[in-house]
Design a protein that fits this description.
The protein is an alpha+beta fold. The chain has four helices and seven strands. The chain has helices at residues 8-14, 21-29, 76-80, 114-125, and strands spanning 6-7, 33-35, 38-39, 46-47, 52-56, 61-66, 83-85. Strand 5 and strand 6 form a beta hairpin. Helix 1 (8-14) packs across helix 2 (21-29). The N and C termini lie far apart (92 Å).
Length: 127
């Protein structure tokens, strides 16, 4: 193997992008990984420091610049040293309406209150 190069499935696993190496291979085979704008066609495609990976995950797209090949799947702190995150910041969510206006319901609609239930029970027990 060339110096400093690593299989894409191993790198995705070591960088904690996927939970297992086989999931990294599936991600690469499904065409959801691009290495320098070229689709990864197989799990054995090699990445090297300086490559830019565009990875389509379930709910987001991440862009990583490979800094180092992985040696092992270590803690998250160690995994973050393998790449530089170039992903754009997530779009801000629309602000929720203020909760100052509480929903109102008409008296007598919906379930009875505890007081109303007790009054109903007293009427039934008096028989």
């Amino acid at each position: 193997m060339a110096e400093g190069r690593q299989r894409i499935d191993k790198w995705l696993f070591f960088a904690r992008v996927t939970k297992s190496r086989s999931l990294g291979a599936k991600l690469a085979l499904s065409g959801k990984v691009r290495i320098n704008r070229d689709k990864a066609t197989q799990a054995a495609d090699l990445v090297k420091p300086g490559d830019v990976l565009t990875i389509t995950l379930e709910r987001r797209i991440v862009i990583y610049k490979v800094l180092l090949p992985g040696v092992r799947r270590g803690p998250a702190e160690e995994a973050r040293k393998l790449y530089e995150d170039l992903s754009p910041p997530p779009e801000p969510r629309a602000e929720l309406p203020p909760r100052a206006i509480l929903p109102q319901r008409e008296a007598g609609s919906g379930r009875p209150t505890k007081k109303e239930r007790r009054e109903t029970d007293r009427l039934r027990d008096s028989d």
